[in-house]
C-alpha cells in the first residue's frame, strides 16, 4: 500500500471485525512528526503517547515536533535528519515513540491482535522501530523486500530489553568494515519493565528458495509466510532470470516465478497468499490450496478508513467503476531497482509531464543505498537524487533513468506532501495491485465509498466465517492466529 495507507484507523477497523489489521511501518517517524506539525488533529497522538512507558522521552519528542494549531498553510514541513548508521538519539527516540503510537492506536478499543509491516531494504530504522511497536504490544511483524534472516533473533532479544544487532547492507563493503547496526533498549528505558511479548514473525516471500532459506538459516523462529505474487501492489520481486519486458515496457513473469504450494505445505508452517486474492472465490481457492488465509491490500487501500487522500481515492474508484482503471508495473520507478506498481492517475507522477516537471530532490532518503567510500566510511546515495550528485558518489548514470522519488510521493498520497518555497507541492504516486480494476465491486448501489467492514463481509461471503481464519491487513491477511 505504501506509506500510511494502512494506518492505525484501517488496522483498527479490520481488527474490530475479528480479523488482524496490520499497520504500515514504513516511514512512521516522518508520518508521526508531520502529523504533530499539523497540530495533531483529533488529539490522537497525544492520547497515544500519554500511555508511552517513558514519559521524559515522549515529552522530548512532543516538544520538538508539535506545533499548536498546526503549521501555517503553505509552510514547509521541517527537514528531519536522514537516517544513517549512527543515528543520533533524537532520531531513534522518534522512531520508538512513532511506532508505539501507531500500534497503540490500532489496538485501542478491542482485544484482537494487530501487526506491523516493514520493508527489509529500509534497514537502519528496524531495531528501534520494532522495539517501539513491541512496547505497544504488537502481535505480528511482517517483512518483505529483502531477506530478513536476522529479524527473528532481534525480536527475541528486544522482547527481553537486551541489545540487538542487524546487518546493514553496504555496497562495496570489505572484510573488517563495521556494517552492523546496534540498538540497546536499556539506553532508552526510564524504568524497569517486564519482558515484552515476542510477536510472531511472517516473512513476505516470492519463491520457494527464500522460504527454505528462512526456515534453515534464520537466527530464530519463523512463524509462517506471506507468499506475494507479482500482481500485488507496491514493490514486486523481479522476475527470475533475465529481465524481459512486454510491449508496454512491463516485466514479464513466467512459470519460474510461481511458488510451488505443495512444497510450501511440506515445510509445515502456515502461509497466506497475496496478490489478487480480494474476492470470496479467491479466498476459498487459497484455503482449498492449503493456505491459512489471504493477504488483501488493494481493496482496503480504497475503503473509507484508508489513509489515502480522498480525491485520489474517489477518482480511482470512479475509474474502476467505469472500467478504465489501469495499473502499470514500472521496472524503473523505484530507486531500489525492484519493479513497482503504479496506478495511472492524472496529476500524479504516473504522468510523464508531472515527473519531468519535478526537480530531482532526495531529502527524505529511506530508499538510499549505503556504499563504501574511498576512505572506508559509509556514504549514501539514491538513484532518484540529482544525476550529477549520484554519479559523483560512484553511481552509474544509467541507473538514474526513470527513477522517481517514492519517499516524497508516498507521503503526498496521505495528505502530508512537502511544500517548497511556499508554492511547489510534492505530487503523489499511488500504488495498487492489478485488482484495482475490480474494486468497484465493493460499492453498494448508489454508494460512493465502502468501509473496511464491507470488505471483510464480502470476502467472507463464500462460506461459513467460522471456517475462515484471521485477517492480517496491509495489507490485510487472513490468518489462523
How would you summarize this macromolecular structure in one to three sentences?
The chain is of the alpha/beta class. Helices cover 30% and strands 14% of the residues.
What does this entry look like structurally?
- With 481 residues, this protein is of the alpha/beta class.
- It has one domain (8-308, 440-479).
- Helix content is 30%, strand content 14%.
- It has 16 helices and 17 strands.
- The strands form five sheets. It has a nine-stranded mixed beta sheet. It has a two-stranded antiparallel sheet with strand order 4-5.
- α1 packs parallel to α5 (89-107) and α4 (55-65) packs across α5.
- The protein is globular and about 50 Å long.
- The two termini are 23 Å apart.
- Mean pLDDT is 92; it is low at 464-471 and 473-481.
Give the secondary structure arrangement, pairings included:
Elements lengths: L7 H9 L3 E5 L3 H10 L6 H6 L5 H11 L23 H19 L6 E6 L6 H10 L4 E5 L6 H9 L4 E4 L12 E4 L16 E6 L2 H10 L7 E4 L32 H6 L4 E4 L5 H9 L4 E3 L2 H4 L8 H13 L4 E4 L9 E4 L8 H6 L11 E4 L5 E4 L5 H6 L13 H8 L5 E2 L3 E2 L26 H8 L10 E4 L2 E4 L2
Parallel strand pairs: 1-2, 2-3, 3-6, 6-7, 7-8, 8-9
Antiparallel strand pairs: 1-17, 4-5, 10-11, 12-13, 14-15, 16-17
Give average pLDDT, whole number.
Answer: 92
Nearest-angstrom radius of gyration? 21 Å
| Extended strand count | 17
* Cα shape: globular
Q: Give the class from helix and strand content and strand pairing.
A: alpha/beta
Main sheet characteristics: 9 strands, mixed
Q: State the end-to-end CA separation.
A: 23 Å
Tally of individual helices? 16
The helix fraction, in percent, is: 25-40%
Oligomer: single chain
- The strand order across the widest sheet is 9-8-7-6-3-2-1-17-16
Percent in strands? 5-15%
List segments where confidence is low: pLDDT < 50 over at least 5 consecutive residues: 464-471, 473-481
Q: What's the number of domains?
A: 1
